[in-house]
Write a structure and sequence with these properties.
The protein has about 375 residues and is of the alpha/beta class. It is built from 7 helices and 19 strands. The chain is about 25% helix and about 20% strand. Strands 1, 2, 3, 4, 5, 6, 7 and 19 form an 8-stranded mixed β-sheet that branches. A 4-stranded parallel β-sheet has the order 8-16-9-10, covered by helices on one side. Strand 14 and strand 15 form a beta hairpin. The protein is elongated, with a radius of gyration of 22 Å.
Length: about 375
């Protein structure tokens, strides 16, 4: 193992690259940094807020089995293999990511939650602050995903509803809602899965979407992926926030979903208008009683730690050129926008490592040798 990072003049421990987050994008970035000659712990570290390997998957509900989860793509250099499809996805990914970190001796430090990233000066390194101290780096790769930013939409009456309200972020089991009437709000795959799970567990779910559900028989193949990424890239290149996943992908019309539609369970009630103390009112004026509301309304990019850098455009997004932040050349975003999927995140890690190495070479050309960076 290489030696520790160098201490600086009180501003923080000095490395060349800090990767924030040890999910798919962060681990891919770390792997490719090492492949390009950067030394673990001395040249780069990975700061992860979680207590154990697994990224956001560590927090997924236990009932989410591997076969029901979104496809998890292989990380570079180590195949996932063929896990038991009935095993909880959180357990599969925890084991896979942990094996990956150990196999490639990646310098993941945890728990290390980054609270802010700020510029030391206009041209110098960035300072990455955690609760336990700070790091100073020439390049920061932020790969924090979305799990820490659940989106709660604003609806009239949400503060007066007397039943239980929870978000996908906090969902654990359908069985705890047995015998209850549950309103599921959201148009993505999580909402679809919740409706079916709740129904199977003896609850009475009702599904509400803003638009008619967009089911598609199209295979989610490489061509589809390229089209989705191009659509998302167009938004982030213009400084707009990324749109929801389902707006770009649609919902796969699987056999289970088809059966739910045929049974009259997986049918949208239409847009929600407001909540009342014990009920919900829909856009068509009808009202239904409910015991709970499950908000399957998605997530937003977890970028609060970057606020000191003032990256946001008037439209709410960040202008991107691939993984590069146009306003801040010292910062790279992996897993943002088009690279938010596990496949996109893996590719973004490689691109971020290449961009980081390129910036380090540019710095070296001005100030002296930077070592062997491929």
């Amino acid at each position: 193992m290489h030696g520790p990072a160098r201490e600086t003049d009180g501003t923080g421990r000095r490395v060349r690259v800090v990767v924030i987050g040890a999910g798919q994008a962060g681990l891919s970035s770390a792997y490719h940094l090492a492949r390009r000659g950067l030394r673990p712990r001395r040249d780069f570290v990975v700061l992860d807020a979680n207590p154990a390997p697994g990224g956001a998957w560590l927090h997924r509900w236990p009932a989410l089995t591997f076969d029901a989860a979104h496809a998890l793509h292989d990380l570079p250099g180590l195949r996932l293999g063929s896990p038991d499809p009935e095993e909880p996805a959180s357990r599969v990914v925890h084991r896979y990511y942990g094996d990956y970190e150990r196999t490639f001796a990646l310098p993941v430090l945890r728990p290390a939650r980054v609270v802010r990233v700020e510029a030391c000066d206009d041209d110098g390194p960035l300072r990455v602050a955690t609760a336990d101290g700070a790091w100073v780096a020439d390049v920061v790769i932020s790969a924090t995903g979305t799990w820490d930013r659940p989106y709660w939409p604003s609806y009239r009456g949400r503060d007066v509803f007397a039943g239980r309200q929870l978000h996908t972020h906090d969902y654990r089991s359908a069985e705890e809602f047995a015998g209850r009437r549950v309103l599921v709000v959201g148009g993505g795959t999580s909402a679809v899965q919740f409706v079916l799970q709740l129904h199977a567990a003896g609850a009475t779910p009702l599904w509400s979407t803003r638009r008619s559900p967009s089911f598609t028989r199209r295979p989610f193949d490489a061509e589809w992926g390229r089209e989705v990424e191009a659509a998302v890239d167009a938004r982030t290149s213009a400084g707009l926030p990324p749109a929801s996943v389902v707006s770009a992908t649609g919902l796969p019309l699987t056999a289970d979903y088809r059966a739910g539609i045929d049974a009259g369970v997986l049918v949208s009630r239409g847009p929600l208008a407001e909540l009342r103390e014990r009920s919900a009112v829909f856009a068509d004026g009808t009202e239904e009683p409910f015991d709970a509301v499950l908000w399957a309304t998605g997530f937003r990019p977890a970028l609060d730690h970057l606020a000191p850098l003032r990256l946001r455009e008037p439209g709410g997004g960040i202008v991107m050129d691939g993984v590069r932040v146009v306003k801040e050349p010292r910062l790279l975003l992996a897993g943002y926008g088009a690279s938010a999927s596990t496949l996109g995140a893996t590719r973004a890690g490689r691109a971020a490592a290449a961009a980081a190495a390129g910036r380090l070479r540019a710095i070296a050309s001005q100030s002296g040798p930077a070592g062997n960076l491929a």
